[in-house]
Structures are given as structure tokens and as C-alpha cells.
Amino acid sequence: MRIVPNRRKVIPDYLCFSINSPRCSQEIRSKQSGSGMGFVPKAVMQGIGVALPPIAEQRAIAAALSDVDALLGALDRLIAKKRDLKQAAIQQLLSGRTRLL
């Protein structure tokens, strides 16, 4: 289903974060039918309520959540890098190429 927001009433990024929020996601999952991807009727999607604060507040919320997503992505990359370095150090120690003094 394609959602085309009225840009005078809602910021698209804010709407995306709202629909993907735990509350909306749970409501959508509880009303879907079928197995696998599941199916959610258009009427159900149209009936889901989304809080719409003023546009300026929507922008601020969307910007804050976007920044948090970027920070979480950077932390995930850093954790993966540290895990890879740890794995490499373990490999070198176990293979005998590196010795502890």
C-alpha cells in the first residue's frame, strides 16, 4: 500500500517513524492475516491513528529520531569493527603467530 501524506499536515519522515513505532507496528501485526508477509486490508491501515502535532514539532521529532538512527548505525559499525579486531587477535594467538610476553 502506498501512503501519500498531505504535506501541509504531516512531514513524511515523521509519518514513517510514527507508523514504524512499536504501538502502530503492534496494531498492524494484530490485524494482519495470512502467513509469511501477511496481509493488512486498506481499511485497517486507514483506521490506524497517528498523533499529529504541529508541523514544527513534527520536524523536530523527525530530526531527533533520524539523528538517533544515525548514531545507532555508527555504534553498530563500531561494535562490528571491534568484534572483527577481537576475532583477528584470537586467531593470531591461537595460530601461534603472535605471542604474549
Q: How many β strands by DSSP?
A: 0
The radius of gyration over CA amounts to: 22 Å
Order of helices and strands: HHHH
Flag low-confidence runs.
Answer: none
Characterize the largest beta sheet: strand count, sense, and whether it forms a barrel.
Answer: none
**Residue-averaged pLDDT, rounded?**
87
Structural class: mainly alpha
Shape: elongated
What is the overall number of helices?
Answer: 4
Helix fraction bin: 55-70%
For the record, give the distance between the C-alpha atoms at the N and C termini, rounded to a whole number: 62 Å
Tally of separate domains: 1
- Sheet-strand content, in percent, reads under 5%
Task: Summarize the SSE layout with pairings.
Elements: H1 12-19, H2 22-31, H3 42-47, H4 55-95
Verbal overview:
The chain is mainly alpha-helical and 101 residues long. It has one domain. It has 4 helices and no strands. It has helices at 12-19, 22-31, 42-47, 55-95. The model has no long low-confidence stretch (mean pLDDT 87).
Descriptive labels:
101 residues; mainly alpha; 4 helices
Short recap of the structure:
By secondary structure, this protein is mainly α. The protein has helices at about 10-20, 20-30, 40-45, 55-95.
